[in-house]
Specification:
Structural class: mainly alpha
Largest sheet: 3 strands, antiparallel
Order of helices and strands: HHEHHEEHHH
Shape: globular
Number of strands: 3
Strand order of the largest sheet: 1-3-2
Length: 151
């Protein structure tokens, strides 16, 4: 049975996700395209493809579909780093788009955190990290029933 506290946490996470969905929609972007552009901005003007997968939480298929769309629109291009790794880079048009979209959201997020006392920011970050590390540890102990399933 789910605890009252976990219900509250799940509700808040869902509400935050809903706000980001609404933001993406207002910016004229799909959730996946917004997530990819946001992630690239987090790294600068480019990032490794594997970092997009790690940071977005999107499936490989969704990422690949969104990247093909962005490439076709002239927003990003892929660059081979070596035989196994690719970098996703913003074009000039992509930089312009991210300034109007993902960077404006990042600026709003920065303003929110800057309005909090530094101690609250540090506590918030520490608690999120503590929860993440504990969840990762618990995930290691879950039975793997995915055998034979494609991911």
């Amino acid at each position: 049975m789910i605890s009252k506290e976990m219900k509250r946490v799940n509700h808040l996470i869902g509400e935050i996700d809903a706000v980001y969905h609404e933001i993406a929609w207002k910016l004229g972007l799909s959730d996946s395209v917004f997530e990819i552009l946001y992630t690239i901005c987090n790294y600068g003007d480019s990032c490794m493809l594997k970092d997009i997968g790690r940071n977005c939480g999107l499936s490989k298929q969704t990422i690949n579909s969104a990247l093909r769309k962005l490439e076709k629109e002239g927003i990003v291009y892929l660059e081979a780093v070596d035989s196994r790794h690719k970098k996703v880079c913003l074009t000039e048009e992509g930089r312009s788009l991210t300034r109007r979209t993902a960077e404006s959201v990042i600026e709003a997020e920065n303003q929110i955190l800057a309005s909090w006392p530094q101690e609250d920011v540090e506590t918030y970050i520490a608690l999120i990290r503590r929860y993440l590390l504990a969840l990762q540890e618990k995930a290691k102990n879950l039975p793997d029933i995915s055998e034979g399933r494609n991911s």
